[in-house]
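Tutorial handout. Part one gives the primary structure; part two gives the three-dimensional structure as tokens.
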Amino acid sequence: MVRTVPVAIEHREIEANGARFHIASAGEGPPLLLLHGWPEFWLTWQPIMERLADRFRLVAPGLRGFGDSDKPGAAFGPSRHADDMAALIEILDLAPVGIVAHDVGASVAQELARQRPELVRALFFFNLVYPGIGDRFTTPDHLRFVWHTYFNQSELAPRLLRTSPEAIPMFVEHLVKLWAHREDAVGKELIDALSDNLARAGNLEGGFDYYRGAAEERARTLDQGEKPAPIAFPTCVRWTEGDRALPVAWADRLPEFFTDLDFAPFPDAGHFPHHEQPDRAAAEIAGFFDRLPTP
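Part two.
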């Protein structure tokens, strides 16, 4: 069981790996690093922080390019974000840390686990992009749900979205409702917060730098023709059944890439289970990390 508790969230700035990062943190106990997706920032984890601050030390950074953290100013993919997170983990003395992530954050966490395994205790993912998805992501039937991944790489995207004050809120609301289990599953308050955050100077461009960097890294991997080594850390995946962007059927190859896997579908939620079903999402996170041996 989890319960919502009044939580004091501390905000501070940390210099790491040549950049300044905004960090939101709360709670006491075993440390968990919470890695957000796009178009999110630290605030996306507030429902989880409110439910787990009495059991864990929760640290929610803004990735470089997002929220109040510094912007890269150039393509900046998952492996470079992993370098940032490794530096933060060391500075904050979190290692070995449990990582909770989805979307962009899940790609960063996988890179971090491969590059700096000594820093990681275990991994918890909601829906994630991983190598086993393969070319299913780009099939014609699926492109209508992920067209933004190509739009976000274009030089036109930030210019176009800044031509009108209504453009960014329309863009965010369309995508959030498209990916949620039900159109009303994510409240207007969160949509407004995500829109306001993207509208701030540099945040559209900073988030889009991730997509360009991820595409460059993917292209290099394809050129090399190498399958990434499996991740051996205890890994829990709760894949929602209502995510149109990342369908649960794509979980079929997870065991090839995560050798110590705890997998289960997550019903009645779409791309944002931490908002659509926050009680269950928090319970799944807590249950997994509580089952692990004491570090």
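Part three, for discussion. The chain has one domain: 10-291. The beta strands are 10-16, 19-26, 31-35, 57-61, 97-101, 120-125, 231-240, 258-266.
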